[in-house]
Amino acid sequence: MDMNRVKQIVSSPADITVHYHGVSVWIDSYDEQNNTATIHMRGSHEEKREVPVEELEEV
C-alpha cells in the first residue's frame, strides 16, 4: 500500500479491510516522514505497533 491510500483509509468513514501479514488490522495513525503507520489488530486495542506502510494490504 502507499501513503496516499493510508491517508484515505484513515479519513474514511467506511470500514475498509486492511491486512498486515495476513491479519486484519485497524490503522490508527500514520507518519509520512518515516512512511510508517501505527496499527492494532482488530479486536485487540492493547497491542499497537508501528509498521512500514508498504507491508499493509487492502483486501
Automatic annotation (TrEMBL):
Cell compartments where the protein resides: Spore core
Protein name, as recorded: Small acid-soluble spore protein H (Minor)
One GO term (biological process): asexual sporulation
Superkingdom of source: Bacteria
Main subcellular location of this protein, as a coarse class: other
Any one cellular-component term (Gene Ontology): endospore-forming forespore
Protein family: Belongs to the SspH family.
A Pfam family that the UniProt record links to this protein: SspH
Keywords, ordered alphabetically: Sporulation
InterPro entries noted in UniProt: SASP_SspH (IPR012610)
Taxonomic lineage from the root: Bacteria, Bacillati, Bacillota, Bacilli, Bacillales
HAMAP family, A to Z: SspH (MF_00667)
